[in-house]
Write a structure and sequence with these properties.
- The complex is a heterodimer of chains A (277) and B (618).
- Chain A is elongated and about 110 Å long.
- Chain A is mostly helical and 277 residues long.
- Chain A starts with a helix and ends in a 9-residue tail after the last strand.
- In chain A, strands 1-2 form a two-stranded antiparallel ribbon.
- In chain A, 35% of the residues lie in helices and 1% in strands.
- About 4% of the residues of chain A have low confidence.
- Chain B is built from two helices and 27 strands.
- The two termini of chain B are 30 Å apart.
- Chain B has a 26-stranded antiparallel β-barrel.
- With 618 residues, chain B is mainly beta.
- The mean pLDDT of chain B is 91.
- The interface between A and B is large, with 94 and 156 residues.
Chain lengths: 277, 618
């Protein structure tokens, strides 16, 4: 190949490349048809968050979520555009957080729970934290019916007539946050409010450390006072304590409520038998 | 409350410093209600469960200000303030164009407890907990987000309950006063391939329980009277550091996250408590006891966890999870006890005893789980195994023996899901855990769990969901002969109109639970602890709007036919709304609760609550 031939081929290739290259599709392009949707998105919570990081992200947000739209621009049908973005689209901007949902959070992924099952897209102004499609307790109840039903029990965590939100205790994406207060098991979540049971204690009650509060309490709701897992406290205590002294005559009312004397059941700083708090 | 005022003043100062806010940039809603209630039956029992009262209530306050100026966003969300609701909360947020956010969250909850027909019948609790969380988020520098946070929890409680003294039960009151404060610095990287999060917090805890004599006689009718009871004991933890570190990474083929947490606590207990009793009403003499104590407890906790996910090709996914926790604590106490008997003439005899005690409590927990999943076009199957160990080594007191137990566990799970379309998802899963040895005698030797879930979207707004689970666990007769079976199952059906203006649904739930545990009674004989629930719940709910009228409501019936403590309960709510001009809404509220125990009428109630509400959205 002579030098002239080489230059000719290079020139043809360069021209072909220029000819086939197209302007990137931006929100402005999309807004030519979607003149109501695009501005609403840009001024909404999701659009504003994108613009805050980089206006270029907002400019490319339509194709960022709905996929390449080259074909759609030429032939605008619903067949050649991804109307409902999958997790990959969301994670392209929300990667690497501890709250990942794509691979490690197996239960939600296996059950086919997608990002947009719970979160809004940002096209509508929802006025909720994290663009949630509705209140967390409603979203969770769609699958977790038994747990949701537990809050109807006589004794339950309540905020008056307002539902107690699942997100008060649960981190939904399987994120790896350990309990803030270093208790194991379910105790970590409980101790965010019930700080007096955090410990350490001079005389701890080991089950609380071993299995957390659910050792004795049903956190979602119970038919028993104090959310206990048994109606009779004596039964609850005696299931573990096999060495109660014989003077404990459990047929007498005094001994049917162990906490009458052993007041510091969560741990005592004064007495090994929990007689003093 | 002073802490909240301080925050409000701070927010006001910040807003004022940034210039006037334009009125036209505000959007939001405000709504208030006034409710009356008629109580038939035990009102204390109603308050122990629901804790609603008559009065005013802020239903909703949400204000949002947006501007392109120095203050780009200012928001307030609040609800619950007033006498009618036992909980209230407020959130304030301030966002500056320069990339600085200021936030303040506040919530306060009250709870009440006083039952007549329970084991806990001689106890009354009146709790109030207030939580504050505020901070500044600086995200103007792209590589790093910095958060400076402050958190506080205050509890003010009055408890009335018996104490054991002079061989009898005496009613006392206790004012509990507890405060926790925590300062936090949090750094999050945003531009590195691996996201790193570091949080360091420092907390203080203070607890002062102050008992007082209620003046009521001994519960058993004993002629000896409780003369006085008091305490000057202060329990404090100063400078409790918690360090947390999280690293996470994700790509199309791999996700990984690891976290570490370390915390060190040192508790100091000091002060004395005293009790005095008037023997025979004081005619025979008085007995006085003063306990002075110096106690300490140190606890170090280390916790780590990891979660890895590998996507192998287009079909296979491998997941590996694990966590590790290690805690060790040492405690000591030195007590000096003074007992004095004084005759009516003033002669006294005094005894003085002292004792020192020490304890240790160490535990180690670890668990790993490996699962493999294959995902086809319309189905997925998965399986995996797990192993874990738990070691507890404690000696609560020098008078008790050392308890050192290590427990190992293994387990496996198998599952499948079928997703023929976006409208149907069927999941079944079975898992089993086997454990050797026991930390506590109620620990199971095996746990089997089978789960089934079906979610369907039937089209035209209809949904039908079914779910069921069976869990059983047991251990052998030489341990506790534990036998527990739990079977929750249910069906939910709902319909929502295309425009979202109407919906209704029916949820039916059944929960059967029975546990049977062998007991060793104080007499040395054997017995059984049997607890049974046979709980049925039905909830019907819906809402509709037509023109200027709207109605929403729900009604729930709950019945427990189990042998342990059968009861039934109703609750219902109805809201009729008239939509006026300019975003105004006028509502009438009707709420109903009933509770009926089979064994006794002492804690039964019927409560009708009604009220009016006005809301304005702008």
């Amino acid at each position: 190949m002579t030098r002239l031939q080489f230059l000719a081929v290079a020139a043809i290739l360069a021209l072909a490349t220029v000819a086939t290259a197209q302007e990137p599709i931006t929100m402005e392009t999309c807004a030519m048809c979607h003149d109501d949707v695009a501005p609403a998105f840009a001024s909404g919570a999701h659009g504003r968050a994108m613009a805050k990081v980089d206006t270029a992200i907002l400019d490319r947000s339509c194709v960022g979520c709905h996929g390449p739209a080259t074909e759609h621009v030429d032939d605008p049908t619903t067949e050649n555009i991804n109307r409902f973005p999958d997790a990959a689209a969301c994670l392209s901007c929300h990667p690497g957080r501890e709250a990942m949902t794509d691979i490690t959070a197996s239960a939600h992924v296996r059950s086919g729970v997608a990002c947009l099952d719970c979160h809004g897209t940002g096209h509508a102004e929802l006025g909720t934290d994290h663009l949630l499609a509705s209140a967390p307790h409603k979203l969770c109840a769609e699958c977790h019916l038994s747990e949701s039903g537990s809050f109807e029990m006589p004794y339950a965590h309540r905020d008056g007539t307002r539902p107690f939100e699942c997100t008060n205790c649960h981190s939904l994406h399987g994120d790896n946050r350990q309990g803030r207060l270093a208790m194991i098991g379910s105790g970590g979540a409980c101790l965010d409010c019930h700080t007096e049971k955090t410990g350490p204690f001079v005389y701890p009650h080991p089950p609380q450390n071993a299995n957390g509060c659910i050792n004795c309490h049903a956190p979602h709701g119970s038919t028993n006072p104090k959310l206990l897992t048994r109606h009779r406290m004596t039964a609850l205590c005696l299931e573990c304590h096999t060495n109660a002294p014989s003077f404990h005559d459990i047929s007498r009312p005094r001994y049917q409520q162990c906490q009458n004397c052993h007041v510091a059941v969560h741990g005592s700083n004064r007495d090994p038998l929990f007689f003093k708090e | 409350m002073p802490r909240m005022k301080w925050f409000l003043i701070l927010i006001t100062m910040v807003v004022s410093a940034t210039g006037p806010l334009s009125a036209q940039n505000w959007t939001g809603a405000i709504g208030a209600a006034y409710l009356w209630q008629d109580v038939d039956g035990n009102e204390d029992s109603f308050r122990s469960q629901i804790n609603l009262q008559e009065g005013f209530m802020l239903e909703d306050l949400s204000l949002l200000y947006r501007n392109d100026g120095a203050v780009s966003e200012f928001s307030i969300d609040a609800w619950g303030f007033g006498d009618a609701n036992p909980a209230e909360a407020a959130k304030l947020g301030l966002e500056f164009g320069a990339g600085i956010r200021v936030f303040f969250d506040y919530d306060r909850r009250t709870s009440f407890f006083n039952l007549a027909g329970s084991d806990l019948a001689n106890r009354t609790d009146d709790w109030e907990i207030a939580r504050y969380h505020g901070g500044v988020v600086i995200d103007s520098w792209r590589p790093l987000e910095i958060t400076l946070g402050y958190r506080a929890v205050e509890r003010e409680v009055t408890v009335e309950r018996p104490i054991y003294g002079l061989n009898e039960m005496y009613p006392v009151g206790i004012d509990l006063d507890e405060t926790m404060q925590e300062w936090t610095v949090r750094l999050v990287t945003r531009t590195l391939p691996v996201r790193l999060e570091f949080e360091q917090s420092m907390a203080t805890y203070t607890r002062k329980n102050r008992p007082f004599a209620t003046g009521e006689p001994a519960i058993g009718g004993d002629p000896d009277e409780l003369g006085s009871i008091s305490s000057s004991v202060v329990e404090e933890m100063d400078n409790v550091p918690t360090t947390r570190f999280i690293a996470s990474y994700s790509s199309k083929r791999f996700e990984g996250v690891a976290s570490l947490l370390w915390r060190s606590s040192e508790l100091d207990v000091s002060g004395s408590d005293s009790q005095s009793y008037l023997i025979g009403g004081g005619d025979i003499g008085t007995w006085e006891m003063v306990d002075s104590a110096l106690g300490a407890a140190e606890q170090d906790t280390f916790a780590g966890a990891f979660s890895l996910g590998f996507r192998l090709g287009n079909r296979w996914t491998l997941r590996l999870n694990g966590d590790y926790r290690d805690g060790s604590s040492n405690s000591s106490i030195a007590t000096d006890r003074l007992s004095r008997v004084t005759s009516p003439l003033g002669a006294d005899i005094t005894w003085r005893t002292s004792f020192d005690d020490q304890g240790t409590f160490d535990f180690t927990d670890s668990r790993t789980r490996l699962t493999v999943e294959y995902r086809g076009n319309k189905f997925a199957v998965w399986g995996g195994g797990s192993s874990g160990s738990r070691e507890y080594d404690w000696r609560l007191s020098e008078d008790t023996g050392r308890f050192d137990v290590k427990r190992d566990s293994t387990g496996y799970l198998l599952g499948a899901s079928w997703n023929p379309s976006k409208a149907v998802d069927l999941t079944v899963e079975f898992d089993r855990g086997d454990f050797d040895r026991y930390i506590f005698r109620v620990d199971p030797e095996t746990v089997d769990r089978a789960t089934l879930k079906l979610r369907t979207r039937l089209g035209k707004g209809w949904r039908l969901d079914l779910h069921g689970r069976h869990v059983q666990s047991d251990n052998p007769p030489e341990v506790a002969a534990l036998d527990t079976k739990a079977t929750p199952f249910g069906i939910a059906c709902s319909w929502t109109s295309a425009d979202g203006n109407s919906s209704f649904g029916l949820d039916l739930e059944q929960y059967n639970f029975k546990t049977d545990t062998g007991l060793v009674l104080p007499t040395g004989g054997t017995g059984r602890s049997i607890y049974e629930l046979d709980l049925s719940t039905a909830t019907l709910y819906g809402h509709t709007r037509s023109g200027i009228f709207g109605v929403s409501g729900s009604v729930t019936y709950l019945e427990d036919d189990g042998d342990s403590w059968p009861m039934d309960a109703w609750n219902g709510r109805l809201r009729l709304t008239l939509y006026g001009a300019s975003g105004l809404e006028y509502s009438a509220l009707l709420q109903y609760w009933s509770y009926d125990e089979v064994a006794t009428d002492l804690d039964d109630f019927d409560v009708l609550r009604y009220g009016l509400a006005v809301n304005w959205r702008f």
